[in-house]
Hints:
Blueprint: E1 5-11, E2 19-23, E3 26-32, H1 37-59, H2 66-80, E4 89-93, E5 101-104, E6 109-113, H3 121-136, H4 142-148, H5 154-168
Parallel strand pairs: 1-3, 4-6
Antiparallel strand pairs: 2-3, 5-6
Amino acid sequence: MTEPQVEVRRSKRRKQTVSAYRDGGRVVVLLPARMSRAEERRWVDEMLSRLRRSETRRKSPARASDDALLNRCAELSQRYLDGLAVAAGVRWVAPMRTRWASCTPAEGTIRVSRRLREVPSWVLDYVLVHELAHLLVPGHGADFWEWVNRYPRTERAIGYLEGLTAAADLGTGVGEPESGDEVD
């Protein structure tokens, strides 16, 4: 990956803050005038790194369009479900009250709550695999979980979603006690 052209602008009015932004094909870094050349080099490197991280997050599947979600489902089905689960459509929807996502197997459609736009991509991938598995097996029986557990981060993603639910008190039912379990 080639480094972009960098323009450094110093300002006497700028006392402490450093910022950067893209302007066409170059990056503009704004620095206090009093900064040494060594500090300038360190801050330019740091700001380029921050911009790259920010842009990578914006391009991640979690922020993808509906078409990108559909493409991701096709990739995940190939990788973990032998290509057998084929979604006819996948789309982001307004936050659901009690679910992270849902599917309609008869139509082959999947709806994903916009609340998942900010989760790590591996968590979104788990949710998509979960819904794709419903295209193969209705319900949550052992045969369903055999498909879902092919995704290597299933347990970790469930834990992440349980934590998110608990933190936000969203009541999505993830990790809800089974009947007969003691509840404090």
